């Protein structure tokens, strides 16, 4: 740990500046090249929690579990780039998605996105510390609490001074270490546990569904909810948006396609540790599935390989933890101080950097407190992703449809969340008429999710056809059935309600928005002439000409 975090700190110090630039601290100036950007995107998406969750999925659902987890996550990275190119086209110098929503709509939309990202990043930090603490507790003489404190201090140490630039530079080294470790460790554990013969001798430890490559349990409980959840992560997550605003605009497609393959291969591979544990009849220590990966490593690896494994997990959690810290600092710097306290014209870049560093310290402290609860990582991931599901359509529509208003955005998100919570946590009895209503909305949600995916790559006409056909095709099977899967139903209901409300309210608006205003209202905080800065309070929804967008 001293070598790993010491090396990361040395890299951070080497690129530190005596007078840190606020824009560089948040996005690296928007000029990051392909190699660093692709490695950073891959490392950020491959977090320790995703490794642990993939293994948990493999242990719970059999061989199809990690494939559902890794494949859909990889495809969602691929889905980012068509929307990402549109976002960068209308806001080339922005720092956060919430900042763009402020320029597009106003304060309430901005705070919804900023607030959801603060919650998401703190939960992400917490889950990564839990993963690291479990590793330290299992493989060293130190306790869980000592482990999370040491890891939190290490990540904070190298991220604090140079912010985003330190995060992406260390990501490059971390992703090389992670990929190398996966290539070596997974085959060794497989053969040490019994090799190909394990699939015969251990088959009795599996249920029929766990043996089925096309398991319905795995699809409805893991695959389908994750499709919806990861689409939400892709659109609303500030750690992703930060890399989108940092990479050179002409390299967006290349960066996200490369990250797609890197993530998929790594996460599916690590998830196979859970499948091996299932076939081998391994019982998670203390009944805690978070202990499964370190337990397999401790059982089947020698001390040298155990060190390599340790670096793999520490690298994965650090790459995401530093991304969460820089995301949180950017939100507070831009959306809290830069837009709502000082105002863009009066924001002091040096004060912004100080605020960003203070934010990181507070965020780490909060994550340490929450990490002590040892919450289930898989539940945390699905929950946050579903919360973001209510934001997906309003956010995407706001970048393409000039008639979307601040009221349509805000009311749609609140309505989506209000519908999501009782379904997801079974607060109401879904066995009767409410269950039927939930199934109808969930079926509409299926069409919306698939339609949005098609829209990103093929445009509006194809999206409408795909969404309509998917809804009609799913209806005979989904209605009367989906409500028994609350995780999946909750996510789909959130998509459906937020989309229906947003479209209905938007159609009532006759005015349109000039997307060119977003570029004027967002931009650098450092070295920008005061005369060119936009007003503190944009006036959204002004009836001006639309420039080639959906009218």
From TrEMBL:
Its main location: membrane. The chain crosses the membrane at residues 24-47, 67-84, 111-136, 142-164, 176-199, 219-236, 256-280, 300-321, 354-371, 377-401, 408-427, 433-455, 462-486, 492-509. The keyword Cell membrane applies. It catalyses: L-proline(in) + Na(+)(in) = L-proline(out) + Na(+)(out). Pfam families: SSF. It is a multi-pass membrane protein. It comes from the Bacteria. It is found in: Cell membrane. Residues 523-551 are annotated as: Disordered. InterPro entries: Na/Glc_symporter_sf, Na/solute_symporter, Sodium:Solute_Symporter. Residues 523-540 have a biased composition (Basic and acidic residues). CDD domains: SLC5sbd_DUR3 (cd11476). Gene3D superfamilies: Sodium/glucose cotransporter (1.20.1730.10). Keywords: Cell membrane, Ion transport, Membrane, Sodium, Sodium transport, Symport, Transmembrane, Transmembrane helix, Transport. Belongs to the sodium:solute symporter (SSF) (TC 2.A.21) family. This is Sodium:solute symporter family protein. It comes from Promicromonospora aerolata.
């Amino acid at each position: 740990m001293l070598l790993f975090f010491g090396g990361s700190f040395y890299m951070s110090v080497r690129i530190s500046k005596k007078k840190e630039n606020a824009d560089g601290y948040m996005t690296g100036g928007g000029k990051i090249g392909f190699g660093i950007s692709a490695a950073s995107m891959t490392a950020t998406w491959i977090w320790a929690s995703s490794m642990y969750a993939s293994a948990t999925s493999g242990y719970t659902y059999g061989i199809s579990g990690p494939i559902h987890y890794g494949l859909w996550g990889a495809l969602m990275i691929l889905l980012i780039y068509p929307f990402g190119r549109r976002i960068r086209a209308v806001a080339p110098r922005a720092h956060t998605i919430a900042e763009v929503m402020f320029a597009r709509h106003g304060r309430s939309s901005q705070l919804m996105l900023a607030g959801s990202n603060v919650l998401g990043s703190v939960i992400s930090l917490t889950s990564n510390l839990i993963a690291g603490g479990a590793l330290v507790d299992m493989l060293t003489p130190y306790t869980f609490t000592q482990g999370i404190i040491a890891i939190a201090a290490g990540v904070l140490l190298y991220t604090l001074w140079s912010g985003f630039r330190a995060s992406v530079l260390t990501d490059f080294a971390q992703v090389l270490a992670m990929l190398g470790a996966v290539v070596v460790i997974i085959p060794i554990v497989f053969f040490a546990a019994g090799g190909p013969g394990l699939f015969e001798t251990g088959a009795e430890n599996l249920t029929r569904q766990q043996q089925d490559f096309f398991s319905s349990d795995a699809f409805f409980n893991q695959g389908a909810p994750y499709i919806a959840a990861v689409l939400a992560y892709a659109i609303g997550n500030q750690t992703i948006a930060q890399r989108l605003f940092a990479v050179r605009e002409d390299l967006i497609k290349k960066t996200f396609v490369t990250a797609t393959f890197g993530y998929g291969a790594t996460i599916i591979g690590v998830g196979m540790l859970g499948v091996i544990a299932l076939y081998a009849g391994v019982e998670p220590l203390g009944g805690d599935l978070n202990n499964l990966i370190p337990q397999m490593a401790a059982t089947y690896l020698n001390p040298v390989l155990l060190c390599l494994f340790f670096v793999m997990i520490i690298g994965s959690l650090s790459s995401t933890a530093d991304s969460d810290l820089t995301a949180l600092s950017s939100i507070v710097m831009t959306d809290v101080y830069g837009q709502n306290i000082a105002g863009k014209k009066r924001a002091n870049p040096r004060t912004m950097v100080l605020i960003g560093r203070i934010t990181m310290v507070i965020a780490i402290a909060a994550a340490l407190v929450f990490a002590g609860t040892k919450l289930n990582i898989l539940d945390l991931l699905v929950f946050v992703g579903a919360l973001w599901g209510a934001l997906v359509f309003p956010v995407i529509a706001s970048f393409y449809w000039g008639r979307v208003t601040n009221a349509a955005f805000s009311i749609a998100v609140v309505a989506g969340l209000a519908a999501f919570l009782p379904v997801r946590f079974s607060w109401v009895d879904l066995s009767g008429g409410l269950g039927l209503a939930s199934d109808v909305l969930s079926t509409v949600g299926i069409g919306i999710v698939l339609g949005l995916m098609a829209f990103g790559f093929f445009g509006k006409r194809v999206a409408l056809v795909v969404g309509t056909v998917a809804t009609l095709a799913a209806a005979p099977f989904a209605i009367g059935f989906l409500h028994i899967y609350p995780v999946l139903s909750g996510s789909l209901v959130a998509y459906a309600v937020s989309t229906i409300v947003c479209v209905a309210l938007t159609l009532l608006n006759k005015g349109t928005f000039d997307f060119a205003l977003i570029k004027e209202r967002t931009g650098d905080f450092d070295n920008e002439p005061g005369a060119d800065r936009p007003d503190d309070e944009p006036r959204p929804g002004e009836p001006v000409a639309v420039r080639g967008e959906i009218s």
